[in-house]
Design goal:
- 43% of the residues lie in helices and 15% in strands.
- About 8% of the residues have low confidence.
């Protein structure tokens, strides 16, 4: 199968996952995920049945538990926020994540959550998706993970997410800093993108528009 076919199929999976998060009520999605076995790690959002977002401490414990329980997933710190909180790069592959050299020359996808700290759904999506890929027994997904490494930066703006604030600790909208690279958060993102040259990048954002939840397809910015 061609590189385009594999990455296209993975992109379709990602889009469906995002649509499910958008269309289903918060508590409904949390209840579905909580039906997992007790051996499968759960996020703070799931543990609270959708009443609280995953905290920074929850995320650290969650990533550690997923890595301990699944050979498919590994993670490392690739940078720090302006306030010193870690930015993590998660790699998921089958039967285990390939070497950096193989990821760089092979097929890979990068998913970035919550560049805007007041948009928590991106982080929750990234954490749940990396967990689901790490433990899925779906034969088609497993086969795709043999050919495509899926990488995540679950929380690109940990200072802003911790304070439920759009900007980082210095009041900078990091999503507007990808040309000048002045912030430590975006410098970390740039290093990852330059090293691995992802075939697909999913930058997760959310936007409310009126009293009813809606999805909007906006024009391409870059």
């Amino acid at each position: 199968m061609s590189k385009y076919s594999y990455t296209s199929k993975f992109l379709s999976f990602i889009i469906v996952f995002l649509l499910m998060i958008t269309w289903f009520p918060v508590n409904g999605m949390a209840n579905v995920e909580n039906s997992h076995s007790n051996d499968i790690p759960t996020t703070g959002f799931e543990d609270s049945n959708g009443t609280e977002w995953t905290s920074h401490e929850d995320e650290l414990a969650f990533l550690q538990e997923v890595e301990e329980k699944s050979e498919r997933m590994t993670y490392s710190q690739v940078g720090s926020s302006e306030n010193g909180l870690p930015l993590h790069l998660v790699k998921v592959g089958y039967p285990e994540p390939p070497s950096d050299e193989d990821i760089e020359t092979g097929q890979n996808i990068l998913i970035i959550g919550s560049q805007h700290g007041s948009e928590p759904a991106g982080r929750e999506m990234a954490l749940k998706m990396l967990r689901d890929l790490a433990f899925s027994d779906d034969s088609e997904l497993v086969e795709q993970l043999e050919n495509t490494t899926v990488m995540f930066i679950p929380t690109a703006n940990p200072d802003g997410r911790k304070e439920n604030r759009r900007t980082n600790e210095d009041g900078v909208d990091i999503n507007r800093d990808h040309l000048h690279l002045l912030t430590s958060e975006v410098q970390a993102l740039a290093r990852v993108m330059n090293q691995y040259d992802p075939d697909i990048i999913v930058d997760a954002h959310e936007r409310s528009s009126g009293p009813e939840p809606q999805m909007e397809v906006q024009w391409v910015r870059n």
